[in-house]
Design a protein that fits this description.
This protein has 505 residues and is α/β, with parallel strands linked by helices. It folds into two domains: 165 residues, Ribosomal Protein S5, domain 2 (2-Layer Sandwich); 307 residues, Rossmann fold (3-Layer(aba) Sandwich), CATH 3.40.50. It contains 21 helices and 16 strands. A hairpin with a 2-residue loop joins strand 1 and strand 2. Helix 2 packs across helix 3.
Length: 505
Amino acid sequence: MFNILSSAVIGIEARPITVEADVSPGMPNFNIVGLPDVSVKEARDRIRAAIKNSRFSFPRTRVTVNLAPADIKKQGSSFDLPIALAILLAQGEFDRTDLDKTLFLGELALDGQVRPVTGVLTSALMAKNLGYMTIFVPEQNIQEALAVGKLRVLPATSLLSVVEHLKNINAIPEAIPVKMNKVCLDSYIDFKHIKGQEQAKRGLEIAAAGGHNVLLKGPPGTGKTLLARSLPSILPPLTHEESLEVTSIASVAGTLPIQGGLIRERPFRTPHHSCSAISLVGGGTWPRPGEVTLAHRGVLFLDELAEFSRHVLEHLRQPLEDGFVHVSRAAASVRFPSRFLLMAATNPCPCGYASDPHRACICSARNISQYRKRISGPLLDRFDLIIEVPNVEVDKLMGEKDAEDSKTIRQRVGVARRLQEKRYKKTNYLTNAEIPTSSLKQHCEIEKEGTALLKQALDAQRLSARGFTRVKKVARTIADLAGEEMITATHIAEALRYRPAELFD
């Protein structure tokens, strides 16, 4: 019995898999065991054709391939290359020398060429953590594997080239990292092109600096969507650790561009309001990441929030609170990360003009009531900032002078983020929005006048316990933007301004 090392992706984590092959006398038969799914079982025809078309002979006897451990479900086409190599090794085509620390990944075409697969970065991270020295990956996945570092990455272009390398006939040169382009912000909407809406822009700056959830509300045409789509232009770039997380998710989901290395830009996901609960939070027979996971360390923008199904929106409550989604199915139980900034926009009523002083609302009281009930109180309570976006004044709209640009705002946001990075360097959270309740007293010290103002607001606005903690977190971010260590009454007052007692007041 002969074996080759590979890996299986479960959620966004990889597990080591040993591919064992046995060629024994008997009627010609090719079986793959070890809990393979349909895509792995279909590999039999691809592997048989790839071996023959690579000038090797396929055994005309009984061939059994085992994917161990057998209690882990295997899916995907990345097992094609290791299975083919295990069969050739069992036939004596090459010797198994120095393969104990070598990982193989790749899908085989019928002519023996190796095609790209998903989850390479996750598998490379696993290989590095387990002390593997070398990894063979499809040529299109090279930069993805090289992003891990301290791992010898060899491009597998074809089954024949890999075998010749293992037989020391024609060595495959080690892959070299390619310098990736810097983050380009020119494609984003610049704040300087948005007329007026100073309070909304200030609120988005606070949200970007502290990672706070924000809801924009107002009549149609006031710029809610435009403001939301400009948010990425003021967000700081991903750190290396965040980039690894985001790229791993994209790799598993199959959304990573071909020949792409580490993702440097924060994700910005905008699902349509007709999306299902599974597409939003993840799931399926074999669990796959949803929009909340694809937006990890970035922004999830829900435009026309009240048009989403209430059933779908309620699924957001747990990932917003915990920072992860636990999907349990018969096939597997998977945990997906979901630490994202929730940005939403909504109108006050179906026609949109209930809060517009210049246009009359044509909705009935019943329609308005039903519309508002689509957003539950518990979900609404999870927004740190609720910002009114009114119509822009004519003078500002017609003015030719540009507003403050995104670059200037992004610099202030970067300073505030660096303060948080320094403050939380010994913790497992990164931003003010992630501060656990147990650490609020330590990180959110408030002066006497600010405490009195917060107590007064609690009595007047009837804030929930969650609302109370979120006001303190927002005030902490406002203080960071001002470069002050102590939270003052001014910071508390501004934080309370973004938290009205009612959504549709």
